[in-house]
């Protein structure tokens, strides 16, 4: 008799435990399903607009104000922004506004007459009266001093671009955040450059 | 010399033809006679996008491997070495930039900004750890996250924090998550990425303050295990929700807990729930009353939070550069003549009118007003629920990991003397 009661009690206890367990499991399953639907919903809404190609940061040369922040604000030292030369637009001037300091009287290529703080621009004679200007990207720090000079006195063929072999493609470009001209934006990764002469701004 | 004259003539001709020259083409491109070949600018390609899918593959492989070590092998050593691999790959090799934590902001911006669509890879990095957490617990935290891995390696003498302090600090991630969503949704900034303390260490290059912050976190991490993960990480909030209802989860013991208490001090994160036999029946009825009172208090917390949020929206919106500029120009119009202020000078040169700027800024501020309101209510809700949880007792017989808080590092498994 005692044994039977004991058994029954144990059964009862087991059953109670089981039902309790089921209830907890039901809540757990329900919540898991709810969360799964939530994650699915968010990702579903996002995937409609998602791109399969990815994007990279680039400077629109027509919006750039040559403020000089590219040299200091990039997470890389030196900056992943370099000056590039759009030869298509260049006038091959003898008196280059991007190469020489504005006040320099003598057209001497001595260091004190050069605008570039790191002497990254080399000047090469082509034919009378034309000179070619080439930028050594290892020396360039992206300060945009030459860009400003070229923009003020020349064809504006020198301009800044983000070099994608150097750029870490941060989720939020730290230069873009402080760019006064809002010139830096995400562009499709299959068209990663905006080089003057090849790219025209869409107004 | 002939060319020089030709150039001047051409210049004059073009002046006559176009009437007014744009600033860009002052000097036409010369025609070379010496056979000079014009070079073209080099355009180094960005990292191939196929490689980004490889990153997704690595992430899935790491998550599966961690799950294998947790459920099959029960090996802390395996989890540790997997996390070292993640630290090297996602941290030092990928420079901490494809990151599930930061992807929160991309998802937010995608949903909020009609002109922005995130990359599929970033979306996968956002979803996969959450889905894994729903089924296996926080395996991402255990060994896939480089931020967690670097902190896990320095845990040396973990101290037990007072419960009240833990709960208080535990509110920060919710606030951080809310602010990150608010700032991303308004298109202001990605604060999670900007204040990531370890990314500077991964890149071996960062502003001085961020390096100090990163090293500070690691130094604190010697004694307070994984401080960023537990008290700051906004993605941890989402993973906590998922993991709380996970299908399977790491267990301390391979078969049945014998309550030997050996694991009690093994967890550096205080994430093991210790069975409490001291609850009296009398207390329970009192608790039901308290439970009801605190449930009713939740709307009051939410209203209070919403009010605080509403009050702070003007302050919060100053983080937006446009709002900041508009405010600056309204309060200090004399700054327009300050040639050293690059932002103001760029704005003046852009030819945008003041009215347009103010209108855009007030639109952004309006978004901040609504956003801060929701953020405040959300924080109130979380606070209310946290208070409520104090009165929820679940009868526990065994030592079990707290499914939400447990980072699945596997340390406790080594301490359990029970054999399977």
Mind explaining what this structure looks like?
By secondary structure, chain A is an alpha+beta fold. Chain A has 2 domains: 1-50; 55-188, no CATH class. Chain A is built from 3 helices and 6 strands. Chain A has helices at 2-49, 69-73, 145-153, and strands spanning 55-59, 81-85, 121-127, 130-135, 158-162, 184-188. In chain A, the strands form 3 sheets. A two-stranded antiparallel ribbon of chain A has the order 1-6. The longest helix of chain A has 48 residues, at 2-49. The model of chain A is unreliable at 1-13 (pLDDT under 50). Chain B folds into 3 domains: 1-32, no CATH class; 55-275 and 400-415, no CATH class; 282-389, no CATH class. Chain B has helices at residues 2-18, 49-73, 76-93, 100-112, 120-136, 139-143, 146-154, 163-169, 172-185, 191-194, 199-203, 208-223, 227-231, 234-244, 281-317, 321-331, 342-350, 354-389, 411-415, and strands at residues 272-273, 400-401. Mean pLDDT of chain B is 90; it is low at 15-23. The chains are: A alpha+beta (203), B mainly alpha (420). At the A-B interface, helix 1 and strand 4 of A face helix 4, helix 5, helix 14 and helix 17 of B.
**Poorly predicted ranges of chain A:** 1-13
**Largest beta-sheet characterization of chain A:** 2 strands, antiparallel
Taken as a percent bin, the fraction of beta residues of chain A is 15-25%
Q: Helix segment count of chain A?
A: 3
Give the H and E element order of chain B.
HHHHHHHHHHHHHHEHHHHEH
Structure class of chain B? mainly alpha
* N/C terminus separation of chain A: 95 Å
Query: Termini separation of chain B (Å)?
Result: 95 Å
Largest sheet of chain B: 2 strands, antiparallel
Low-confidence stretches of chain B: 15-23
The fraction of residues in strands of chain B falls at under 5%
């Amino acid at each position: 008799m005692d044994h039977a009661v004991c058994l029954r009690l144990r059964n009862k206890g087991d059953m109670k435990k089981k039902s309790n367990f089921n209830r907890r499991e039901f809540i757990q399953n329900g919540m898991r399903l709810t969360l799964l639907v939530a994650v699915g919903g968010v990702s579903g809404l996002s995937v409609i607009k998602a791109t399969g190609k990815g994007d990279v940061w680039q400077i629109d040369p027509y919006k750039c104000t040559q403020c000089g922040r590219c040299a200091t604000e990039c997470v890389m030292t030196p900056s992943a922004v370099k000056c590039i030369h759009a030869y298509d637009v260049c006038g091959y001037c003898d008196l280059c506004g991007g190469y020489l300091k504005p006040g320099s009287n003598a057209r001497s290529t001595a260091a004190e007459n050069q605008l570039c703080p790191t002497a990254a621009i080399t000047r090469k004679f082509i034919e009378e009266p034309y000179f070619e200007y080439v930028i050594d990207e290892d020396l360039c720090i992206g300060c945009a001093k030459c860009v400003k000079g070229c923009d003020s006195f020349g064809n504006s063929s020198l301009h800044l671009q983000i070099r994608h072999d150097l750029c870490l493609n941060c989720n939020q470009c730290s230069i873009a955040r402080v760019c006064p001209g809002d010139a830096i934006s995400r562009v499709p990764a299959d068209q990663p450059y905006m080089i003057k002469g090849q790219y025209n701004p869409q107004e | 010399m002939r060319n020089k004259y030709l150039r001047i003539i051409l210049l004059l001709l073009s002046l006559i033809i176009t009437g007014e020259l744009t600033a860009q083409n002052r000097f036409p491109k010369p025609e070379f006679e010496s056979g000079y070949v014009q070079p073209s600018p080099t355009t180094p390609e960005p990292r191939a996008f196929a490689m980004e899918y490889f990153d997704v593959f690595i992430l899935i492989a790491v998550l599966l491997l961690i799950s294998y070590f947790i459920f099959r092998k029960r090996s802390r050593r395996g989890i540790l070495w997997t996390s070292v691999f993640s630290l090297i790959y996602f941290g030092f090799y990928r420079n901490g930039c494809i990151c599930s934590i930061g992807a929160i902001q991309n998802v937010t911006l995608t949903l909020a900004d009609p002109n922005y669509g995130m990359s599929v890879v970033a979306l996968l990095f956002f979803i996969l750890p959450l889905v894994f957490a729903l089924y296996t617990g926080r395996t991402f935290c255990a060994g896939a996250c480089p931020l967690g891995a670097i902190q896990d390696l320095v845990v040396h003498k973990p101290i037990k924090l007072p419960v009240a302090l833990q709960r208080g600090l535990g509110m920060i991630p919710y606030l951080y998550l809310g602010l990150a969503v608010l700032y991303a949704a308004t298109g202001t900034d990605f604060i999670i990425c900007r204040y990531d303390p370890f990314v500077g260490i991964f890149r071996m290059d960062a502003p001085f303050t961020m390096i100090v912050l990163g090293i500070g976190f690691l130094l604190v991490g010697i004694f307070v295990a994984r401080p960023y993960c537990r008290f700051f990480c906004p993605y941890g909030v989402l993973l906590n929700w998922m993991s709380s209802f996970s299908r399977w989860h790491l267990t301390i013991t391979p078969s049945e807990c014998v309550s030997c208490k050996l694991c009690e001090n093994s967890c550096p994160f205080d994430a093991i729930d210790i069975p409490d036999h001291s609850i009296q029946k009398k207390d329970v009825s009192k608790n039901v009353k308290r439970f009801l009172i605190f449930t009713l208090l939740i709307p009051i917390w939410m209203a209070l939070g919403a009010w605080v949020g509403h009050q702070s929206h003007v302050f919060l919106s100053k983080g937006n550069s446009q709002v900041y500029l508009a405010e600056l120009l309204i309060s200090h119009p004399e700054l327009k003549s300050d040639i050293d202020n690059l932002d103001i000078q760029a704005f003046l040169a852009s030819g945008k009118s003041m009215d347009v700027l103010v209108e855009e800024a007030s639109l952004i501020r309006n978004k901040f007003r609504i956003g801060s309101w929701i953020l405040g209510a959300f924080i109130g809700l979380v606070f209310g629920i946290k208070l409520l949880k104090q009165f929820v007792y679940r009868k526990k017989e065994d030592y079990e990991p707290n499914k939400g808080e447990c980072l699945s590092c596997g340390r406790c498994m080594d301490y359990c003397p029970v054999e399977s």
